[in-house]
Recover the amino acids of this structure.
């Protein structure tokens, strides 16, 4: 009989479940390398060299302030400016009106930075605003090369925003990463804070790509 010699076909639903199971097993086996790659993608820095000015972006004042003190101590920049005009709600509630720039500077000084070499520049509430303010400030100072310091997992987006803003200005922008005390690029998915930070950064990256 003709039907007897025909090869029996696998039902589409069975094939679907087989594919799902295989993909699930692959995701389980390669979970850590994939997650680690997702975190590593967000980090993009430049080789450190001497610059005219260091700009420490607002946010994560403890981590960025500490790293700013290291950069200054190593002699990569003669002076640093801390940006960011936002004031944390917890500080407002206590009547403490310190900007992100003030907090970062205080952290750097506590870590050993010379107060005369790290100054506040309380401008900007977003990366794009800070880039615009830093461009004007660097042009006013007559800088040829600047270093922008941000937390490690922000560096790819920060570098893109600043380089686009500085295009045609004649000023070279280098990006330096401050290690995060709340984010481990090797195992970020193991903590709630790490999951939130990576998720938020990818959302911002997509938002900037779509909007600008």
């Amino acid at each position: 009989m003709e039907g007897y010699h025909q090869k029996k076909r696998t039902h589409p639903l069975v094939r679907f479940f087989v594919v799902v199971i295989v993909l699930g097993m692959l995701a389980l086996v390669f979970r850590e390398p994939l997650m680690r790659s997702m975190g590593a993608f967000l980090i993009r820095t430049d080789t450190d060299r001497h610059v005219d000015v260091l700009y420490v972006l607002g946010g994560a004042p403890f981590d960025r302030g500490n790293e700013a003190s290291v950069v200054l101590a190593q002699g990569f920049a003669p002076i640093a400016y801390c940006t960011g005009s936002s004031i944390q709600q917890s500080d407002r509630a206590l009547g403490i009106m310190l900007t992100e720039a003030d907090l970062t500077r205080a952290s750097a000084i506590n870590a050993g930075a010379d107060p005369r070499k790290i100054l506040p520049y309380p401008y900007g509430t977003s990366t794009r605003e800070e880039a615009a303010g830093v461009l004007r400030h660097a042009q006013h100072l007559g800088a040829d090369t600047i270093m922008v310091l941000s937390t490690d997992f922000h560096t790819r987006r920060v570098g893109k925003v600043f380089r686009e803003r500085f295009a045609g200005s004649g000023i070279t922008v280098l990006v330096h990463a401050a290690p995060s005390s709340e984010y481990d690029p090797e195992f970020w998915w193991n903590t709630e804070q790490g999951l939130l930070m990576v998720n938020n950064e990818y959302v911002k990256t997509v938002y900037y790509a779509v909007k600008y």
